[in-house]
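Interim report to the steering committee. The following record documents the input for Glycosyltransferase (465 residues).
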Amino acid sequence: MEGHIVIFPSPGMGHLIPLVELAQRLLDHRRLFITFIIPTAVGATIIPQNDILNAMPENISTIFLPPVDLNDIPDDAAIETRIALTMSRSFPSLRQTLAELTRTSKKPSALVVDLFGTPSFETIKDFDIPAYIFCTVSAMSLVSIFQTPILDKMYACELRDILEPVTLPGCVPVHGSDMSEPLQDKKNEVYNHMIHSSKLFSLSKGILINSFFELEPGAFKALEEGDWCKPDVYSVGPLIRSGSRNQTNDGIECLKWLDKHPVASVLFVSFGSGGTLSQEQINELAFGLEQSGQRFLWVIKSPHRKSNASYFNAQSHLNPFGFLPDGFLERVKDRGLLVSSWAPQVEILGHGSTGGFLTHCGWNSILESVVNGVPMIAWPLFAEQRMNAVLLTDGLGVAYRVKVDENGLVGRDEIDKCVKNLIAGEDGRKMRLKVSELKDLAALATSQDSSSTKSLLNVAQKWVE
Ligand code: UDP
């Protein structure tokens, strides 16, 4: 028998990439028919998004919903507000599309959404389609989502003002200021939205997490045992992209450049699809990399005062390198490569010359680094990235975390120190050993008959019954 799965991703490469990977793995195991229904916003052309969708196999179909208008949203609105509104304003067309699909093809046996899709459960209740969540974040983040309404009742103050570290069940203790960014301001509407949507998690039939038991045993046990987590939880990760099918010229150039350098000698620097730095911070990073004397491959986007300015389009806006300090490119030309906007990250992390990853701590980036045994420098920017940094440093011991100074900057000396230690120092060597143990566990988790493969088969079976 065949099942029909509908996947409704929220905007952002960090959600789309793992959902596409999930779809492809499901097709490897079961006779399923998969439809992606994609919400879009006016003016948000995501070039890498289209590349990924165009490369999908034929038995996955794609329906783009009419773009919604976000022009009434103030420029400084939180990124989570933009995502949530893109989703909710698309609900009427989601309903229409589901009605059409139910009439013309097989009724969906499951709707799969990511973290921002839970409000759709109320909208499509009458379709009677079992709803599942695919968590593109860590098990620790999922624990924190369930615990948020509890913490909200427990503390009247802002999370960052709680004196002692917060102990989430099964997780490494975390300071309130390192909890998710949207939870940092109770007066912001996004805070209430997060509380509301975390309550909706309990309406799902099951939650798939892109993580694996061996990476976060405490958090997975807590999710299984805690009476606050009602849905079944399936650890199905690490699901990471197996590599780009169509390499761009820039991509090919990166890999050829890496070929020329010694094993584990290059630091890969990237802040994900959406991360951006201020002009001042870019200067400090450039001088820090230069000072360190180490090799580096830096994916760079033009400066912006907001840390997630390219989230909706993953592109750099100005002349690719015109904003760098005078003479920088010339001075580092023998040991530094700069790429504008987008690089083949999975291939770079899998290349033997890559010895470290300076990352903004997006969950996909972390998984990709772990799967390839690359130790990290954690430089979290937004969303739940600070909590991920705590997991990497205090929990797993596979990363340094950069120190931010009193002006909100990571200074060149700090960068110099972290880079030297990671690539050439004793601490870096120890972290490399630890992360290579995790690499082996990750490979085991996705091999045949292993924890994540069994979980994936288990849930896929429910969708064909
Ligand atoms: N990515 C990439 N090339 C880039 C930047 C990002 O291939 O130049 C991919 C990266 O491999 C990962 C995803 O985009 O799969 C980013 O997801 P993540 O969760 O790390 O961060 P986000 O972009 O959602 O903040």
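The chain has a mean pLDDT of 92. The committee is asked to note this result when reviewing the revised timeline.
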